[in-house]
Amino acid sequence: MTLQILLILSLHAALATSLREVSGYLGDKVTLPSAADASWKLSSITWSIFPNNTWIATCRDQKTNVERVDRYKRRLRLNTSTGDLTILHLTPEDDMVYTVDLTNTDKQYSVNKMKVTVRERLQKPIISSYLSKDEHCSWFLQCCSTDADVHLSWQDVPQTGTFSNMTTSNGNSADLSAFLQNTTNLVEITCTSRRKAEKASRVVTLMCYAEEPQPTLDPQVLPSTRERYSLVLLVGSILGASLTVSGLYIAMCVRRKRNI
């Protein structure tokens, strides 16, 4: 029995090809090619993980089982013709080495290994904007990314105004100073984050405008306005005094009746 196991392990080591690699994004799916000979008619397919060869998907005697391990339940699809395995809804734990053992109807064997790399999609960069309003319209823009190993750059920078573009040395932060003319036109500037073939962008909208003049009073109107306020105060004072006198008179009458 021990000899048989050693022979099987030796056979696996001899037949295993160089490690192939495939990558996918979190939440997406990825297909692991079995690398089976196109002329083969497969009679047995076994996909496994870990050094102890834990089976996760098998097909034997035309019976397929892809529900062997809880973490992969309802997430595996096995192509019984090619031996390819598809993993749905990728998680960080799916990042590992997978092994496939193949047997054809002529009792020929093949062992292949596949390294799956699970990556996060490139996130949109974050833009912070600060406005300094004086005689000019001065903007300071900063674009940064939470991802590593990215390059940030500004696009769609308008021709009007003065711009100073600077990307910091660490590669995941970019600054842009903008001095725009006062205008009611909207200015849209894009910051793009790139990592190899991936890219993600975010747009910021800027607008500068001249301050509206504050309303001023016509000097010729001021005297008449003051006269109106004086008349209102005078009438109020007269009414107040009349009410006070009336109140005193009523009080005196009440006292006289009590004394009679």
TrEMBL record:
The chain crosses the membrane at residues 229-251. It comes from the Eukaryota. InterPro entries: CD2/SLAM_rcpt, Ig-like_dom_sf, Ig-like_fold, Ig_sub, Ig_V-set. Pfam families: V-set. It is found in: Membrane. The keyword Membrane applies. Gene3D superfamilies: Immunoglobulins. The keyword Transmembrane helix applies. Residues 1-16 form the signal peptide. GO terms for cellular component: cell-cell junction; membrane. Residues 19-119 form the Immunoglobulin domain. Its main location: membrane. Keywords: Glycoprotein, Membrane, Signal, Transmembrane, Transmembrane helix. This is Immunoglobulin domain-containing protein. It comes from Cyclopterus lumpus.
